[in-house]
Every structure is written in structure tokens, then in C-alpha cells.
User: What shape does this take?
Amino acid sequence: MEIALRAALLGWLAADPTLTSELNAVVEEAPSRTSLPWLALTASSSTDWSCKTHQGREIRMALELQCRGDAPDTAAALVAAIEARVESLPRAQAGFRVVSTVFLRARAEQRGESRRAILLEYRFRILTH
Assistant: This one.
């Protein structure tokens, strides 16, 4: 179920016209030869969240936005668009249903050469059909 959710979320993010106009890539894992900015689904983990009638998983995912900028509010609008898109992932998916999507935490880091990394972590609870 974790792999299916990863694929669904990546497809959902990549289909957003606002994000695709702002980002050079929306990918799984960090791209090796893509210019900034890009968004990657960098990590996920899951645990059992089953009930009597359905198998389920609680899946935690981390998305990382890499961009350039010296100002603390660099990419604030882009981050807001990413958050809105993640939280609007359709509940009904092929083979499973998203029961809940919860923002867990974010972290922003200034790196060398005006490079910024912004990490967004979410928890998804899903059940199979």
C-alpha cells in the first residue's frame, strides 16, 4: 500500500499546473541532474493500521523542496501550493481509500550558494477497498 500511495501522490503533485509551472521536476528521490527548484518524495515508512474488515496502513512521507534564495520567505508561496495540493489528494484511489491526511512538521534549512531545502512531513492513514 505504501508504494501505491507514493505513486498516487507523485502523480497528483505532477498533475498540478501551478506546481509544474514553478518546478523543474516532481520526482521520487532527489534528481541527480535537474536544476533547481525541484520537489522529491524522499522518504516514507509505514505501520499497520488495519481494522476488522479492512487492511490498513499509517504511512508517513517526507517531501523535500530544493530551491535558491537568500530571503527567509523564499518559496513561501510555492510551499503553500505544495501543501494545498498534498492535502487535496482525492480520498478514493485505485485499490485503497485515504482516510486522513495530516501535516506533521516542516523544516527549512539555508545551505551554501543561496540554496534552500524545505522538508514537509505528512501522515496518511489508508484502508484497502
